[in-house]
Write a structure and sequence with these properties.
By secondary structure, the protein is of the alpha/beta class. It contains 12 helices and 15 strands. The two termini are about 35 Å apart. It binds pyridoxal-5'-phosphate (PLP).
Length: about 425
């Protein structure tokens, strides 16, 4: 698409066009059909496999987006107006926004330092405190696999089971990540996957929900197709949504599934190379799995910068208002009047981002915690400072299938060049 080294850009296997052609030839250019069914089967096989154990029997429903999958999982967990949902604060907004679509309130949970994901201790503290304050149990728990890194799912499930609160795993960034040999998204009641253009695999745009059984999958499918009752005419007894995946997009997904294992292996290889090349650079630390059970797909590779590290051009950081939204939301601009906010990455992180940008390398700050977002200023939050301090020192580095070994060496060299010795 261009010569810049991008964070994570989709890579086609070549098979996609065959599946799409089949859809056209058989006139299945609609939001259902053989590609959707075929992609669902491929996904089920992929998420159900387990190291050294019988495969699971989860069902998968393909949807128009990962955000839609979060939304429908919340509905299936019975979330409605006035309810509360516990959600990891350190995440992309799609983990929490659908809670507000339902008139419910997100309650944000901070992270622990090892995986950067939901802190189980804070989770339990929040459950007790919400029950004490509101007299009601929160309706669901949403941990997030940030950049593909698994959360402490064994501890989170133990707490969730004890309080009988369903877990919706946001594995949108963690497709191909395992905890102890089992796929993320298969531990909780529901698991969210995303196939947006920059995720581990893509359908151009799309998502899926991993469901516990065929009945639950049927319910999700029903909500995703406008909740039509079984009559010869349109009879509606509940509010539904138009969230089904199109047969064309699913064709892309089937093609992607033929190379998914290679993609994941490549992301892990790139991570290992960064670790090797940056190991001896003082002030830069690659984020790695806390222990071998955390089998990350390394969707994006991330590093933290010591706040004392001096980077060339720090005096220029945040001097200019940026035009256009971060993350390449194509053509979407929303003007801001100021170049800074009350919570942002340190000047050395922004200077490194600008230096890499000038060298033709895309990098990005970590997700800004939701409890620091103005739109959520009134939402309850259980905070230990971890996600805010990581946001100030962290940076995402390119990791996709297009990133070659030479690219990684060039990126590592560019980082070293940016540092003032
Ligand atoms: C991408 C993403 C989603 C949503 O996926 P879309 O397919 O873009 O709607 C949800 N949660 C997280 C953490 C994500 O990164």
């Amino acid at each position: 698409m261009n010569d810049r080294i991008l964070l994570c850009l989709a890579h086609m296997s070549g098979k996609e066009q065959e599946f799409i052609k089949e859809a056209f030839d058989s006139n299945w250019v609609v939001p259902m059909g053989p590609n959707v069914t075929g992609f669902e089967h491929d996904l089920e096989k992929f998420v159900n496999r387990r190291d050294g154990m019988e495969p699971l029997d989860k069902k998968v429903v393909c949807l128009s987006a990962g955000t839609a999958a979060v939304h429908l999982a919340l509905i299936a967990c019975g979330v409605g107006a006035g309810d509360e949902v516990l959600v990891q604060s350190f995440t992309f907004c799609a983990s929490s926004h659908p809670i507000t679509y339902l008139g419910a309130t997100p309650v944000f949970i901070d992270s622990e330092k090892d995986s950067w994901n939901m802190d189980p201790e804070l989770l339990e503290e929040a459950i007790r405190d919400r029950i004490a304050k509101t007299g009601k149990k929160p309706k669901a728990i949403i941990p997030v696999a940030l950049y593909g890194m698994p959360y402490q799912i064994d501890k989170i499930m133990e707490i969730a089971n004890r309080y009988e609160i369903p877990v919706i795993e946001d594995g949108a960034e963690g497709f191909g990540s395992n905890y102890n040999g089992q796929a993320l998204g298969t531990f909780g009641e529901y698991g969210v996957l995303s196939f947006n253009g920059n995720k581990m695999i893509t359908t151009s745009g799309g998502g899926a929900l991993i469901c516990p059984d065929a009945d639950k999958a049927r319910e999700i499918l029903w909500y995703a197709t406008q909740a039509r009752e079984s009559y010869p005419y349109y009879q509606h007894e509940a509010i539904g949504y138009n969230y089904r995946m199109s047969n064309i997009c699913a064709g892309i997904g089937r093609g992607q599934m033929t190379i998914v294992d290679e993609h994941i292996a490549h992301h892990r290889h790139v991570q290992a190379l960064y670790e090797e090349l940056l190991r001896d650079v003082p002030g830069i630390t690659m984020h790695t799995a806390p222990s071998p059970e955390f089998e990350s797909n390394y969707w994006l590779c991330t590093a933290t910068l010591d706040e004392k590290l001096k980077v060339k051009g720090e005096e220029l950081a945040y001097k200019q208002v940026i035009t256009g939204a971060v993350g390449g939301a194509a053509g979407v601009t929303h003007a801001t009047s100021s170049a800074t906010t009350d919570c942002q990455p340190n000047d050395n992180v922004e200077a490194l981002r600008m230096a890499l940008d000038a060298a033709g390398i895309e990098s990005r700050p970590l997700w800004k915690p939701m409890h620091k977002q103005p739109v959520y200023k009134d939402a309850p939050a259980y905070v230990n400072g971890v996600s805010e301090s990581l946001f100030k020192v962290g940076i995402c580095l390119p990791a996709g299938p297009w990133v070659t070994d030479d690219n990684v060496r060039y990126i590592a060299d560019s980082i070293k060049e940016g540092i003032v010795n």
